[in-house]
Design goal:
Spore Coat Polysaccharide Biosynthesis Protein SpsA, Chain A, 7-stranded mixed sheet, 10 helices
Length: about 260
Amino acid sequence: MNSFEIIIPAYNEEENIAGLIRTIKETVGESGKITVIDDASEDQTAEIAARGGAEVIRHPYRIGNGACVKTGLRRSSADIVVCMDADGQHSPKDIPKLLSRMEDFDMVIGARDFSKLTSRDIANRLYNLFAGYVTLFKIQDLTSGFRAVKRREALKFLYLLPNSFSYPTTLTLSFLKTGRTIKYIPITSSARKSGKSKINLTKDGTRFFLIILKIAIFFSPLRVFLPLSALCFCAGGLYYLYTFLNSHRFTNMSALLLTTSIII
């Protein structure tokens, strides 16, 4: 059986980390190593995690959630790495479900339920749709931080992963666009039990969109630029037709739109 390690990026999670580690041990026993990457927390997160039996790696200063995952991937020697949040949102009882499909896939991702009409759920559904268009694959949860991945494959994309919360987006799109296999598994997702969320919906939401756009341009530029070019060409052609029928002129705006469509 492949060895696995559970990597938990954490920043100021002293109220949640002990319970999480305890539940993980109750679920997987001693078969998987637990490593907490402490991102220079200002509370007792690292000390509590160490007392709970986890290996703790501390950053000298705060770098970011994605940087914690990259540190964990570099330092791990396991075949499979399971990444999960430290805030109690992810249930350790879902870990066996993810690991059970790792024989057949390069990465297995826990998919949350976005059926509610909250701003966060709506934003995630839009990200999923756009990413699905780019990858030609049905994306169920682009930003999920709960996933099991073959470490050898993930290391190949380490240089692409940002230091922020948007690392899941980059990793998922990179796997799909390079022909690696992924699988979504429905998971139980809970609200943060205590403490404050580190995600800013506006700031990080914009970053997620830009990451999707960057990966799309990098791997599939035509999926982005061809529709834009067609839109400019059609707008230029229709505007030329309108101005020609009304004043028998070829306007500068028509020329600009048609030229832009060719340049794109």
